Structure formats: C-alpha cells, structure tokens
Amino acid sequence: MPKILITAAGSYGDIAPYTGVGARLRAAGHEVALATHDSHAGLVRAAGLEFRRLPADPRARRAAPAPADGQDRPGRPDGKRDLMRQAAAFLRELAGGIADAAPEDTDLLLLSTTTAPLGHHLAEALDIPFLDLPLVPGAPTGDFAPVVSGGRSLGRWGNRAAGRLSLRIIDRLHADASRDLRARLGLPPATPRTVRRRTEAAARPVLHGFSEALVPRPTDWRPGLDVVGNWWPWHAPDAQLPPAVEDFLAAGPPPVFIGFGSMAGGEGERLSALAAAALRRAGVRGILQSGWAGLSAGDTSADAGLLTVGEIPHALLFPRMAAVVHHCGAGTAAAGVRAKVPTVPVPVTADQPFWAARLATLGVATAPIPFKELTGDDGTARLTHALTQATTTPAHRDRAHAAAHRLTTEDGAGKVLTAVERLTP
User: Per the domain annotation, does 237 fall within a domain?
Assistant: First the structure.
C-alpha cells in the first residue's frame, strides 16, 4: 500500500481542502498522512487521516502576546517590508519541521501552495515523486495578473512580466529556509530559483484545485498545468447543523451569513456593530460567524434577528442563506457559488481581491468592498447597499445557480486520485 504524505500550512482555508483529497485517497486504499499545524489536528483525524505536526502555527502566533514596545505584532504587519520579513520567518520555521514529517518510507509527496517550494527539496532528498496541488493559479500568464496583485490586468505582456516577478519574490522569501533545509537534508547548495527552474524544466504535472467556472485555464499555460475543480473540505456524511441554528432558520426568512475566517483578528467588536447596523438597515436577519475576528451578536437575542455561530461547514450552512458576506478566500468564494447564493465580497489581503473580482465579473456577487473601506458610517452604508442588492436582485442568484451547476459536475479529488495512481504503481 503506497504511503502518501500531504503537506499543507497556513490557516483553515489553506488546510481544509486537503482533508477532502486525503479522504478520497484513503477510500481508494492508500495510506495517507496530512502534515500541518497542531490547531488542525482534529480536522485531520476526523477525516480518517494520520496527523503529522508542522511548526509555525499561525493560530499560535496570533495568540502570542505582543511585545511591550509594540513592535513585531504577530499577524499584523505594518507594511510590505514587515510582511515580507514575517513571511520569511514563517517559512524558515516551517522548514525546520517539514523534514521531520516525512519518514524514509514515504512513497509520494502531495504539496500545497505554501509547502511546495520546501517540499521539492524534501522529494529530492528522499528520491521520491511529488505532485504540486495549489489552490490558486501561480504560473505566469498573459490572461491575468498574479493573484496577489489585486486582480487588475496589466495587459498580456505586463501580466506575464508581473507573474515572473512574483516568482522571483517567492524565491527570495524562501532563500534562508531553503538553505537551512538543504543543509539539514545533506543536499548540495542550490538556490530556490535554481530548484524552481529545474522543476519547471521537468514539466511535471500540476493540478490546481479550483474550478474553470471561476477561472478558465489560461490559454498560454504549458501542457500539464491542469485545472481540475475544487477540493471540498471533508465533513461527516451524517453531519447536521446545530439545533440552535436550525431553530433560528425556522423562525424567519433566510438570513445573511457574515464571517471573515482567519482575517481581521482583534476587530470583532467594531465589525460586529457595523454588521448588525447594516443588517438592520437592510431589513434582513443575520448569522455572524465568530472566526478569528471574534464576531458576536453580543447580548442580542435570536428574536432580534441575529445569531452567533462558531465553526460550521460551509457546505451545510451556505445553502440555507439569502446571501453570504465574507473575505473571499479561494475556498469560501467557491463554497458560496456552489451553494447557489449571491456573495458580498469584502477582500482583505493576498489572493482575496482576485477572487472577489472574479465573482463580481461572473455576476454572482456585488461589487467588492475592500475591507479597509469597511469603516464608519460610510462603511455601514456601503454594506447595507450591497446586502440589499444581493438579497433583492434575482440576476445574482440566477447566475450563481448556473455557475453552481458547473462546480457540482466536477470531481477535483477524483482527478488527484487518477494522478496519484499514475505516480504510485
């Protein structure tokens, strides 16, 4: 029985899709372990997968107290330079533990977007095959600008140039981590750029875990860079919504979901008040998902049309909503479309503006409201307007229905299984 190791690092949205992949491989008879952070151990084990620990847990970093001088605040970089420094430190810590997660009898590595640049060194040391499984498009293309650039096209030449530049930035971020990891693995020195180009020259298959309904496969990508459909987080087949949620749903018309996942840490009080005001002005009920921000309806009872919830699978909750308001991470964006409900995108950072723009272009979402603009009376007014549009404009829901049909016909995890069985005779 082949022994497969999946490596994934980051927040919930960076990890959860791989539990669905792992469960599908396990059901086909493979022995599967998923290496990630301690805060996701329960998620991994619930899916029937072996848990392996990776360091640099973002949840633990967020919980760490800030230094007295106010510098180096975990998860709250003050600018691009600070963000780059924190990312490099995260990768260096991650590299210190990724080698421990892979025993010598591992037969195949499956690598997430975050872990792939480090995992390539590990595969070289173990002399085993690997498969990159990114959740976002990363290879340069003229069709659109890099996903972290905010979604604005620079023209075909500019998009490709920006894509190549983004790869060089990623190489730079991995410089220290790669040097340390190669030394530990007993590999000869090689820069991240050298290893990346070597991997690209081998033309290995790369399977992207998103739907062409949201992002069509770029026309200028080489063969082997495939878009296979979303990998949905695993949840128990008999899972149900908590009774308190069912009671709330039965007490009135479908509410609006509002949540920011692992974004907006420490801004729960402000965002909760703003969300409650916008929901009230729009005349709709709401479910606030606490998340890292700590959203809460406070002392407001469900009779007032508000309910606070913790972690609930989007696959169970979203189809019962009138609309969903969220930060537009890749998985959450796709979950809203699959649920056939309109989205109000409030992107915060990284690839979120890219996905927000894609949803708006498809007509399944209102115009994005950048998170930094969700403040004060103006922010409340903008959110109120977007909520009214999302819940009263039939076109948004009609287009979401059409896109959802495409998503439900795709079998992203099945495509991974096919590729795995080609690599593990």
Answer: no
Distance of CA 328 to the CA centre of its chain: 9
Residue 326 CA to residue 348 CA, distance in Å, equals: 10
Question: How far apart (Å, rounded) are the C-alpha atoms in residues 193 and 5?
Answer: 24
Q: Which two tokens stand for residue 340?
A: 């056939």
Distance between CA atoms of 269 and 255, rounded to whole angstroms?
Answer: 21
Q: What is the pLDDT of residues 376-425, one digit of tens each?
A: 999 999 999 999 999 999 999 999 999 999 999 999 999 999 999 999 87
Is residue 193 a part of any domain in this protein?
yes
Are 143 and 219 in contact, with CB atoms under 8 Å apart? Answer: yes
Number of separate domains in the chain: 2
Helix or strand or coil: residue 7? strand
The predicted model scores a pTM of 0.93
131 φ, ψ to 5°? -140, 125
Which helix (H) or strand (E) is 163 found in, with range? Answer: helix 155-173
Asked if residue 337 is part of any domain, the answer here is yes
Q: Which two tokens stand for residue 245?
A: 């949620």
Nearest to 335 by CA among 315, 321, 354: 315
The per-residue pLDDT for range 335-388, each reduced to its tens digit, is: 999 999 999 999 998 899 999 999 999 999 999 999 999 999 999 999 999 999
Summarize pLDDT for 154-205 with one digit per residue, the tens.
999 999 999 999 999 999 999 999 999 999 999 999 999 999 999 999 999 9
C-alpha 280/C-alpha 276 separation (Å) is 6
